[in-house]
Design a protein that fits this description.
Layout: E1 10-16, E2 19-24, E3 30-32, H1 41-52, H2 57-64, H3 68-80
Antiparallel strand pairs: 1-2, 2-3
Length: 81
Amino acid sequence: MNCPKCNSEAIKYGSKQGIQRYQCISCNYHFTQGTRPRLSEEQLNMVFEDLLSGMDRQEVANKYGVSLRTIQRWISNMQNE
């Protein structure tokens, strides 16, 4: 199993609600199988550039593989800062 964040080797690290958990040997990231990596700062900037250029929120969500709710939460967080 490889880490979804840095692609290094990961080891089994217990379970939660019957689902196997893993820990990355290099970056100590904890995840379950199927966990998607988080977007990098560069990708987040591209998300906001796409939104500011007029791209529809659903299109942006599909382009970056996140939910529409995630896009809405990011926008809300940016407005609250």
